[in-house]
């Protein structure tokens, strides 16, 4: 009986931790998804646009608890590029 309860608790914990991340997509000037990442809430991930005109562009992308995205101060997306919230992951 104890093992069954432990398995259920472990499944609940895994589900909870997975829901604490956001799937973010990096969109290029042609509106194509060029990278995606599952980023932990209040965390950062490095995303890369290999199709950028000036060569591969790398961005540190952060998310808040509402899956809103941000870039560190001084960093900006290339012209025509954008970030999209694709939900929880």
From TrEMBL:
Signal sequence region: 1-21
- InterPro entries, A to Z: ToxB-like_N_ascomy (IPR041450)
Q: Which Pfam family is one of those matched by this entry?
A: ToxB_N
What UniProt keywords are attached to this protein's entry?
Signal
Coiled-coil regions in this chain? none
Q: Where is the ToxB-like N-terminal ascomycota domain?
A: 22-85
Name by which UniProt lists this protein: ToxB-like N-terminal ascomycota domain-containing protein
According to its UniProt entry, this protein's organism is Colletotrichum kahawae (Coffee berry disease fungus)
């Amino acid at each position: 009986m104890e093992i069954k309860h432990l398995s259920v608790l472990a499944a609940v914990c895994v589900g909870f931790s997975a829901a604490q991340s956001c799937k973010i997509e990096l969109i290029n000037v042609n509106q194509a998804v060029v990278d995606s990442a599952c980023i932990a809430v209040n965390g950062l991930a490095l995303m890369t646009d290999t199709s950028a005109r000036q060569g591969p562009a790398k961005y540190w992308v952060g998310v808040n608890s509402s899956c809103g995205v941000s870039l560190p101060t001084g960093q900006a997306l290339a012209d025509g590029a954008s970030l999209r919230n694709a939900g929880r992951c």
